[in-house]
Amino acid sequence: MKRMIRRRLCMVILTAMLLTLFLNYFVQIQSARSGMYEEALDNFKQIERILEQNEQDTARARQELKQDCFIRAKAAAYILQSRPEVIPDQMEMKKIAGLLQVDELHLFDTQGNLYAGSEPKYYGYNFNSGEQMRFFLPMLADRSLELCQDITPNTAENKLMQYAAVWRPDGQGIVQIGLEPTRVLEAMKKNELSYIFSLVTVENGSVIFAVDPDNFQILGATQEALVGKELEDVGLGPEQVLSSRKGVRAELDGVDSYCVFAPSGSVILGMARSSSALYRGVNRSTALVALYLVLVALLMIVSISNYIDRYIVDGISAINRKLTEITVGNLETTVEEDSTPEFSELSGRINLMVRSIRDNTNKLSQILDVAQVPIGVYEYNQRMRRVMVTSRVAGILGLAGDEAKQLFADHALFEEHLEAIRQNPLSGEKGVYVLSGEPERFVRLETYFREYSVLGLIVDVTEDIRERRRIEQERDIDLLTGLYNRRAFYRRMEELFGSPNELGACAMLMADADNLKQVNDRYGHQNGDRYLQGVARIFRSVCSEKSVLARLSGDEFAAFLYGCSNREELEALVERLRNVMNVETAELTGGESIPVRFSAGCAFYPEDGEDYGSLLKCADTAMYKVKRTRKNKELEE
């Protein structure tokens, strides 16, 4: 029986494997062609973008050259009007042309006759000497005209030139300059297809080309050997080029290829790739799939044969193995052997016994609920998947229903979740961790290991932490300004200077609020408090996270800046502090506002002191020096 089942199983698997291979090969062929089609369109867009960019560059170069011609023509007119004595001197005219960096400089009289300039060979020409010269005839009738000719072959030598002409300011003649448009011609060359295709890179075995839609001649290609050939000479017919399909198969220059075409402006762009290059990955992938299918088929045959042996022949052995797992603590084990009525009854009684054991966890949950203690307990055996938990565990960890079920069903996932919580410990608290989400919550985790099982305790300590923080807040924070008080400031200094190697570049600032007594006397102590809050606001707006800000006494403030890379960075922060002070105001009751000002002294570590006490003393001395200087200045004024 087992042999017959194996034989039929092999036939079914072999048939499925062949169908899968055929379908996979067909899909990959289509995918390769579709991929080439998308690649071809991308390359065509690249060529179009290059053409568009080159046309823009050419137009810009033409416009810039015209503007340049006008500027140089006007400069020449100004020079010749200022120095009329150089007009008869052809060498001087040559020098002027060189200084203006023009190739030709011509001077016409009011009748349009060329009588002077840098090129004597053109003397005697006038605006009627040829089509190129007649362009400037309108200037004789309208002296307000300034004309710049497009790039045109000149009358005498048929050489490409760009000419611009303007009237002399005194109206005694027309000045014309000529430039060889080298930069424009270079830009125009970039629009040639030979140049465009030199910029395009293609895979080995591929070629991109442009076809004239009128005579189907190849105008440009990434393979120079194809340029100038007719399509029929390389194995392509016009009907294939004009096809609206995504691609066609053809013999391109004797090589079996797949081709894609698309119209682009006045040409048709095409891309061809040899079949060997296009389908190279398909054959290799198909061979790998065949290998995988053979391995999977063998694995399936072995697995199914083992399944038959296990549940038909080895029923009793299966129950014994299940019982062994239960005895070592794997309470997730369920016995479902029902090949005979006796096995079915035995399996049910075993499962009932295991459920009774698991109910002990529910009893513990009820006890903790009655006691109203925010404690959760969990336990699992390393050989079982399910985690036994009390009812409060999900609530303490903030787990939703489906998420809790998923985690409690697999102890590996549950431990991963606990490990993620352990990655966010609460500083200064051993075994206490911060839970993600809002509002902020804290838990204490305790784990106990036995031979095969793990017992854990999860305690919600959120209220304890919050109460402790409230006490610390009242102890360390100045209620008026929200800054550290004196005691907290000195404690933080002890902590930071306990590891001086980690301080980096540091600075200590001492500040004293200016004119606080006058503010209190004039506006009242309530507005004096607002004045002090303005000083604290200035410090907070400028200083970074790596700073310690404190109100040491009534009008005395301190700021310790650390973790900077150099002194220049510190000095920049101090300067920002002064700049912010210059614009800060305190809003008083009644809608009036007054400027907030303070005197500050600064000491740098380690230049001015290697401990915070020395820095405070040095900064305090500097502060009083600034304060005295300011008072003396006010007295002088």
Automatic annotation (TrEMBL):
Residues 37-64 form a coiled coil. InterPro entries: Diguanylate_Cyclase, GGDEF_dom, HAMP_dom, Nucleotide_cyclase, Rev_trsase/Diguanyl_cyclase. Residues 310-362 form the HAMP domain. GO terms for cellular component: membrane. Residues 504-637 form the GGDEF domain. Pfam families: GGDEF. Keywords: Coiled coil, Membrane, Transmembrane, Transmembrane helix. One of its GO terms (molecular function) is diguanylate cyclase activity. The chain crosses the membrane at residues 287-308. One of its GO terms (biological process) is signal transduction. NCBIfam families: GGDEF. PANTHER family: DIGUANYLATE CYCLASE DGCM-RELATED (PTHR45138:SF9), REGULATORY COMPONENTS OF SENSORY TRANSDUCTION SYSTEM (PTHR45138). This is Diguanylate cyclase (GGDEF) domain protein. It comes from [Clostridium] asparagiforme DSM 15981. The lineage of its organism: Bacteria, Bacillati, Bacillota, Clostridia, Lachnospirales.
